[in-house]
Design brief:
Elements lengths: L3 E6 L3 E7 L5 E7 L5 H12 L9 H16 L4 E6 L1 H12 L2 H4 L2 E6 L5 H12 L16
Amino acid sequence: MMKLMGLWVDLRRAYMIEIGPDGNPAVKCIEADPDDEGAREHSRARESRIVRRKGPGGRDLRRAFYQQILAAVSGADRIVLFGPDDAKHELDLEIRKRPHLLERMVDVLQLDKFEEADFAARLRAYYRLETKQNPPSRRVPAA
């Protein structure tokens, strides 16, 4: 069975959901460095709609965060990337630098907020998987 994975990322954390052979999700979370001043400033800036300059080490810390994420998803056969604009696009750029991961990336989609049940359902729908809790729809043949 293929290892199907969904990845939701923002500047503070990444959630990886692997859909198992039974269709049930396994969730893993990677937290960004809590001392990443750039991520905190960016988050506050978005909330207050004020654009602030990122700290000098912010980009290096985010790159290290993205490296952790890429290492965690390297065993996946298919990856769908979700998240808000900034972090999702930055990570997509990092993936494009790695041909072995780029060939596994199947889509990049907008999803602003992470909620585990919603994300797992979207991922199952994307990969068109059914589970016992989520059986395929039964159509009655037309007479």
